[in-house]
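Limitations

Structures in this collection are predictions, not experimental determinations, and the ligand pose is part of the prediction. Treat each record accordingly. The example that follows, with zinc ion as the small molecule, is included so readers can see exactly what is and is not provided: the inputs are given verbatim, and the output is the predicted complex.
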Amino acid sequence: MVWPCPLPVDAYVAAGREVGFPRLACPSCAGPLVFWSGYWRHVREAGRCQKIFVPRLRCGRCRVSHALLPAFALAWRLDVAETVGAVIAEVAGGGCGVRPAAARRAVPYTTARGWVRRFGCRARELGVGFAALAVELGGEAVRPAADAAGFALAAIGAAFGAAAGLPGWLAVGVWRFACSVSGGRLIAANTTSPYLMVGKRRFMPPVPP
Ligand SMILES: [Zn+2]
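Predicted complex:
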């Protein structure tokens, strides 16, 4: 699970275990989740690695626990969503090659190439999902294009444009938004599509004040 955390990474890091997080409902049964435990993981922003605390919440009814990632952290990725998104937007958008985009963000070339490839593989699915979300949120309709990656980028932009009309989302930013609504799995290898839940707006939790 991912919550739309608007905090700068440094502020989240500084809060440690005391970081405030919203009480979300269980994604399976919509029942209450209670704080269970948590773990530490690393994130890298602007070339700097830091440790963040990730709370784990548990649903008593389902007897399942869920990690609650802040929206800047992608599942199984060290680099923050803004870094990953910026590289993808530049390269998939045709602005430049992987090498200069990676160099600008101080990430290894092979890492950045992996993000762009994965995004390319999932582009059609992401485009369809985000285009549906854009419409669901009252935004503009985006038509599939021959260039799948360009379609996905346009759809993410349209969905964020619509979400930005809801309280708080504009400050969260486009890549944290994309991470939030994909459950942190924007460029994950294999995943069930979270966009099936779009109709219930399960992936649009309120942004905490
Ligand atoms: Zn539950």
